[in-house]
Design brief:
The complex is a heterodimer of chains A (about 325) and B (about 325).
Chain A (H helix, E strand, L loop, with lengths): L1 H9 L2 H16 L7 E3 L2 E3 L1 H24 L7 H17 L4 H24 L5 H20 L4 E2 L3 H8 L1 E2 L2 E2 H18 L3 H10 L1 H6 L4 H27 L1 E2 L8 H11 L11 H20 L6 H17 L1 H17 L1
Antiparallel strand pairs in A: 1-2, 3-6, 4-5
Chain B lengths: L5 H20 L6 H10 L1 H15 L7 H18 L4 H25 L4 H19 L4 E2 L3 H7 L2 E3 L5 E3 H19 L1 H11 L1 H6 L4 H27 L1 E2 L7 H11 L11 H21 L5 H31 L1
Antiparallel strand pairs in B: 1-4, 2-3
Helix pairs in contact in B: 1-13, 2-8, 2-13, 3-8, 3-9, 3-11, 3-12, 3-13, 4-5, 4-6, 4-11, 5-6, 5-11, 8-9, 9-11, 12-13, 13-14
Classes of the chains: A mainly alpha (about 325), B mainly alpha (about 325).
């Protein structure tokens, strides 16, 4: 029974899609799976997918909870820019790197809690509430960096962006750690259940005794924190904080990753690991388009096609078709 | 005073106060020249915002507006400069393809029953990607017709000039207001945004109205793209990135409720003018950097959202009391 369940879990559409994309990449680019060991770390296209996909994967880890409560967080890209700007400016001003990192994480958390406050306490729709910070956030980031791209050479910040641990890129290690932590948090405690309850029906959940305001604050706070982590990685990667371009449009990729991961946009059903798989699918497509020599502009069109595909699969129309078919299969067993 | 007009009045009062304060600081702001430029510089944003108003009134959102503006600019430039079409034929082609594009998004929103923002997000990727695949460079447009249109100017006393595109925006706002408040389609849109279930029970053709709303929004975005092309005489695939956010901000600042079913096209006009004022003020000041624009727009957005909540909480209480 557990074997079969494990097998059927392996065979879910997201993992199959990821395998499919990787295979296409392999056909287009035979060296795709070649991994080499150099200077104490792994190199190869697959490792590149894991490394480049990490920021979106981390954003997606935070976004899952938000979308599961029937919300959306449009501000994560801007929060990335703010967090990067805070860390870079503090380091350049002479503060020790750990202080800068903690300050950036706190600022991200604060941004998330601000969104949570608007959504939970002032009852503003999530898409509007987070739009405020999406518009203003980049302005704030530019205010912090005074309009310049603040560059730094601090070893700790650079290590977060480009270092490696056990042969894996640091960004990947951080993403895996956050995935494990958040999955344990939502699946080994009741929090995941509460999130699903609030997502299905907030009023009913509140009546059932769930402190939905606290929960929403927590969920948006986590999203802000994840955005700050991603912001630190991106800033460390380019050794600078670019208020204009850091995390630009990444909120859309993060939402897409969560949707591909099968989390319902109508709330109530979510999966953190599958959202990360979604992020990897997106990155594998990006890398595939790059290595196979197509212009990167095709990315956007492929992404659009992918969204429509997922939407059609998730839609009530498709469910109706499947429901009609299912009894036949049950009877055959 | 009619309670439902309160947010509109609030927006108008805030614009008047902001403008008056700006004039006190920079008397030069009060001239026909500045007012004329207000209209010209914000023409494409205003036209796109009219479409966005309809979408938001119907309870949806359209994130593809900026991308459609960019795509239209490229398409028009390619058809005129490379294929040698007459601009009017190119404009017709752009409007027709935008109508088909918006119609498809409307169909997806209605029949797949998914949130509008995700469908229009896919639309945004599609339009932006399509434009970038056609060309990655800026394509200049030079045609007698373009010169003729930019020569259509009404000169005002005081050195101001009303351009064709500025007047076109005003005309679109007038027509938009008439459609919203005086036609069957307009009342369907309000009904849909108020409550789509009751609307369909009352016999509102929900599918047709939804498709119509997104079609209208994409066509107005294409018109905005045409205006942008007239304004810059070029087509660039990355033009007008993020205009959808400005348009949404203008609609919200103009007092339209983002949950749908309530708002005014005229409010959006004031919203666009307020955004224009922020930009003009920052240019006049000279010492403030352009990033202040974003912070001020964000702050205004926040202010108006909270204001809306307070006014609506008060009016619900008032209705209960009476």
């Amino acid at each position: 029974m557990t074997m079969r369940r494990a097998l059927s879990r392996m065979a879910n559409p997201q993992l199959l899609a990821l395998v499919g994309v990787l295979l296409i990449n392999w056909i287009l680019f035979p060296n795709f799976f070649r991994i080499t060991w150099q200077d104490g770390r792994l190199f190869g296209s697959v490792i590149d997918v894991l490394n480049r996909g990490a920021p979106v994967a981390i954003l997606a880890i935070g976004m899952v909870g938000v979308i599961a409560t029937k919300g959306v967080d449009l501000s994560v890209g801007a929060v990335m820019a703010v967090a990067g700007a805070v860390a870079a400016t503090l380091v350049v001003a002479g503060y020790p790197a750990p202080v800068a990192v903690v300050a950036a994480l706190l600022v991200g958390l604060l941004c998330g809690l601000w969104n949570g406050f608007l959504v939970a306490v002032l009852d503003i729709q999530p898409i509007v509430a987070t739009l405020v910070l999406m518009v203003a956030g980049r302005g704030i980031a530019q205010l912090i960096t005074e309009g310049f791209i603040v560059t730094f050479n601090d070893p700790l910040l650079v290590f977060i962006g480009t270092g490696s641990l056990l042969g894996l890129p640091m960004a990947t290690v951080i993403a895996i750690a956050m995935l494990v932590l958040v999955t344990l948090l939502v699946r080994k405690t009741a929090i995941g259940l509460f999130i699903e309850a609030v997502g299905v029906n907030r009023a009913a959940a509140t009546l059932a005794g769930i402190r939905s305001r606290m929960l929403l604050m927590l969920v948006y706070g986590l999203s802000g924190l994840c955005a700050a982590v991603a912001g630190l990685i991106v800033a460390g990667d380019i050794r600078g904080a670019d208020a204009n371009n850091a995390g630009l449009w990444l909120e859309l990729d993060a939402i897409l990753a969560v949707v591909i991961g099968g989390t319902s946009l109508l709330g109530g059903r979510f999966s953190v690991p599958l959202a990360v798989v979604g992020a990897l699918i997106i990155q594998a497509m990006n890398t595939g388009i790059l290595v196979s020599g197509f212009p990167p502009e095709f990315n956007l069109i492929v992404k659009a096609a992918l969204i429509f595909l997922v939407l059609i699969i998730q839609s009530p129309l498709a469910t109706r078709v499947v429901v009609v078919k299912r009894p036949v299969r049950e009877a055959g067993k | 005073m009619n309670r439902s007009l309160r947010p509109l009045v609030a927006t108008a009062v805030i614009f008047a106060i902001a403008y008056a304060l700006s004039i006190l600081q920079f008397p030069g702001l009060f001239s026909t020249r500045v007012l004329g430029n207000f209209l010209t510089d914000n023409a494409f944003l205003g036209i796109a915002a009219v479409g966005m108003t309809f979408v938001i009134l119907s309870g949806g959102i359209d994130l593809s507006v900026g991308a459609v503006i960019g795509f239209t600019g490229v398409l028009v430039a390619v058809l005129i400069s490379w294929a040698g079409w007459h601009p009017l034929a190119a404009f017709a082609m752009a409007l027709a393809s935008a109508a088909a594009f918006g119609g498809l998004m409307g169909l997806a929103v209605h029949y797949l029953q998914v949130p509008a923002f995700i469908v229009t997000l896919a639309g945004m990727f599609l339009a932006r990607g399509g434009a970038s695949v056609i060309t990655r460079d800026s394509i200049p447009v030079s045609h007698e017709f373009y010169d003729w249109i930019s020569s259509l100017i009404i000169r005002l006393p005081g050195g101001g000039r009303l351009s064709f595109i500025g007047l076109l925006m005003v005309a679109i706002f007038v027509v938009g207001a008439l459609v919203a408040h005086r036609t069957k389609f307009g009342s369907y849109v309000y009904a849909l945004g108020g409550n789509s279930v009751s609307a369909s029970l009352m016999g509102v053709p929900v599918a047709r109205t939804t498709v119509g709303v997104y079609m209208l929004s994409s066509m107005l975005a294409a018109l905005a793209g045409i205006v942008f092309s007239l304004y810059t005489s070029a087509g660039y695939p990355l033009a007008a990135v993020g205009v959808e956010l400005d348009a949404i901000s203008a609609v919200v600042i103009g007092g339209t409720l983002l949950t749908g079913g309530y708002g005014f096209v005229l409010g959006t006009f004031i919203g666009v003018m307020l955004l224009g004022l922020v930009q003009t003020y920052i240019i006049f000041d000279g010492t403030l950097s352009s990033w202040w624009t974003k912070i001020v727009i964000g702050a205004l957005l926040f202010l108006f959202i909270v204001l809306q909540r307070l006014i609506f909480a008060a009016s619900v209480r008032g209705e209960k009391a009476s």
